[in-house]
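If your schedule permits, I should be very grateful for your opinion on a structural question. Thank you for your consideration; the sequence and its tokens are set out here:

===
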Amino acid sequence: MKKLISLLSVFFFLSTLIVAQDSKVVETEFKVFGNCNMCKNRIEKALKIDEVKFAKWNKNTKMLKVAFEPTITVDSLQQILAAVGHDTEKFKAKNEVYKALPKCCLYRDNNNTH
């Protein structure tokens, strides 16, 4: 019986360590350009991937708060956003993707551009 309890204790301890390592999350924020609620929806939807636990974009500050697993990089997240038409501090959306956005989402030509 003592051996069983010892084995169960060891198993519980090891499983707790594994879960603790898997739950490591990186939090950061960076600028993503956009204008409106359509932009907000597009930006947040683009980051609905397994590695991202939380993504919230503020249309007034243009800042995206994101929490993600370390299996993906900030550069990768910014590239995903550029691919859907939103410039970031590091990556610029392709012109043809940007120009295909709805007119209200065209942030490069507004007075509040980057």
Remarks:
- Residues 10-20 have pLDDT under 50 and may be disordered.
- The domain at 24-105 is CATH 3.30.70.100 (Alpha-Beta Plaits).
- The beta strands are 26-31, 52-58, 63-68.
- The chain has one domain: 24-105.
